[in-house]
């Protein structure tokens, strides 16, 4: 059996689809299944069992001999939440329990970290120098929680025989319908264009960037789950890895390509970045992907133009899930 936590969420549900596509059907999905808006993400998938996240460790104690691999992708991901205690519960303490359980039962583990650990990027976006990790200063409690766990993991004497932490950059794609404000700008763009014919982007409050010129490493969720699938079979070279496309693009690029995928004439307006995130806003992110390549991952990452076209035309317009 393969365990996937956060399974009704965005990335994890797409991973379940990828596993099903390769005939991995004995999948144990772990989540808070009382959140109804996420449930369509896993409808129709081939699954072995549903386990509530609150009772998962008791389940694992009883069933660990049947488990082959653990993908721990469940997390609280709201970057506007400013109470660190909220993230301590799921992102830090629950992850520590997961790590310790995988050590105890000799299970390989892949877990979700985040590019939010890099903060404003002053120290770069490389995953090769672990001595830098304690020096990172994330811009919000969400990023702190992910960085705290990465550093805790690196300090442990007892580790799973194989483990990998994946620093997700700006992931977009199908199955993010439930994410509200935290959904990708592409989903927000699609909805705005459909409703109003126009798209609103944040103004730049940094003189080094024009309005719409803010740059992020946007990575298609299908590429993300391919990396997870690779690690399922690789099971060596433990460590923390960036997971982006390796290419920063502007929000203007993103908006223009969304209009293009819809066959619409671009109409883009700008408004002030909300004050609650303005001082903690990343203006540039770009993953250094050489470390993942060095262990043998050689599939190309989807160009933004192609990813947006696939997402819009094959999922957003028809309202389909992956």
Any key phrases for this structure?
single chain; about 325 residues; alpha/beta; Rossmann fold; 7-stranded parallel sheet; 3-stranded mixed sheet
The stretches of 5 or more residues where confidence is low (pLDDT under 50) are none
Number of helices: 10
What is the level 1 CATH name of the domain at 2-172 and 217-246 and 286-302?
Alpha Beta
Q: What spatial order of strands do you see in the largest sheet?
A: 3-2-1-4-5-6-10
Corresponding CATH architecture of the domain at 2-172 and 217-246 and 286-302: 3-Layer(aba) Sandwich
CATH homologous superfamily designation of the domain at 2-172 and 217-246 and 286-302: NAD(P)-binding Rossmann-like Domain
Structural category: alpha/beta
Per the CATH scheme, the topology name of the domain at 2-172 and 217-246 and 286-302 is Rossmann fold
Q: What letter string, H or E per element, gives the SSE order?
A: EHEEHEHEHEEHEEHEEHEHHH
- How many DSSP-defined strands? 12
Helix proportion range: 25-40%
CA-atom Rg in angstroms: 19 Å
The profile of the biggest β sheet is: 7 strands, parallel
Beta-strand portion reads 15-25%
How far apart are the termini? 21 Å
Shape: globular
Q: Report the mean per-residue pLDDT as an integer.
A: 95
Catalytic activity: ADP-D-glycero-beta-D-manno-heptose = ADP-L-glycero-beta-D-manno-heptose
Cofactor: NADP(+)
Keywords: Carbohydrate metabolism, Isomerase, NADP
Organism: Hymenobacter sedentarius
């Amino acid at each position: 059996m393969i365990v996937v936590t956060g399974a009704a969420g965005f990335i994890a549900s797409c991973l379940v689809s990828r596993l099903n596509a390769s005939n991995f059907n004995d999948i144990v999905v772990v989540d808070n299944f009382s959140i109804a808006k996420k449930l369509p993400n896993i409808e129709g998938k081939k699954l072995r069992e549903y386990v509530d996240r609150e009772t998962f460790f008791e389940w694992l104690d009883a069933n660990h001999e049947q488990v082959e691999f653990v993908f721990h992708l469940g997390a609280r991901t709201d970057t506007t939440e400013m109470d660190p205690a909220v993230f301590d519960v799921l992102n830090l303490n629950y992850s520590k329990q997961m790590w310790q359980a995988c050590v105890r039962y000799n299970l390989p583990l892949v877990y979700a970290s985040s590019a939010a650990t890099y903060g404003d990027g002053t120290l770069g976006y490389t995953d090769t120098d672990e001595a830098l990790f304690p020096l990172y200063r994330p811009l919000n409690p969400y990023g702190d929680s992910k960085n705290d766990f990465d550093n805790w993991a690196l300090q442990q004497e007892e580790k799973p025989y194989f483990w990998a932490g994946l620093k997700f950059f700006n992931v977009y794609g199908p199955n993010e319908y439930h994410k509200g404000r935290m959904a990708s700008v592409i989903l927000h763009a699609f909805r705005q264009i459909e409703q109003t014919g126009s798209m609103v982007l944040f103004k730049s409050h940094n003189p080094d960037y024009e309005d719409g010129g803010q740059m992020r490493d946007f990575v298609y969720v299908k590429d993300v789950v391919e990396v997870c699938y690779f690690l399922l079979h690789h099971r060596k070279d433990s460590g923390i890895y960036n997971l982006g496309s390796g290419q920063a693009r502007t929000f203007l690029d993103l908006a223009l390509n969304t209009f293009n995928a819809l066959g619409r004439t671009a109409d883009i307006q700008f408004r002030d970045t909300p004050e609650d995130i303005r001082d903690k806003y990343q203006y540039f992110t770009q993953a250094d992907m050489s470390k993942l390549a060095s262990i043998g991952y050689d599939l190309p990452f989807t160009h933004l133009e192609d990813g947006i076209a696939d997402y819009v035309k094959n999922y957003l317009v028809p309202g389909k899930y992956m």
